[in-house]
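User: Show me a protein chain along with its predicted structure.
Assistant: Here is one chain, sequence first, then structure tokens.
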Amino acid sequence: MTKFIYMVDRILAAVCIALMIALVSCVVWQVFSRYVLGAPSTSTDEMARFLFIWVGLLGAAFTLGKKKHLAMDFMLIVLEGRKKALLQIVITLIGLFFSIVIMVFGGGSLVLKTLSVGQISPVLGLQMGWVYAAIPISGSFMILYLLRDLIVPSQE
């Protein structure tokens, strides 16, 4: 499982880096076209918004997997032994529940409904369901990492 998670980490990191490069390029072009050329590019504005969604959600999954996500861990710092391990399991189960119900099931339903009605982005002409697909995809990665944490608890 460690090799598989390592490969997922590498792929997710590479995708996040590529998306971030594209996002920064869009924003730089947007600023250049607006202030130097005097004609702002509308397509890069919309693309930057969509890339920001994907970078934010996939980056959240990646940081969860690396255990570098934002957390209020004051209870974990105070507790020791079995109580700390039990609290960590409860926290992981809550995260798992959220990822399954809200992100994968709810996000997947949003994607399917949006694709079925054919909502199109105004400038790029993309199906908005593909933009929203970042939610269940990110949730799936979070589930993978949280299951890993249940199977192989950290030794901290």
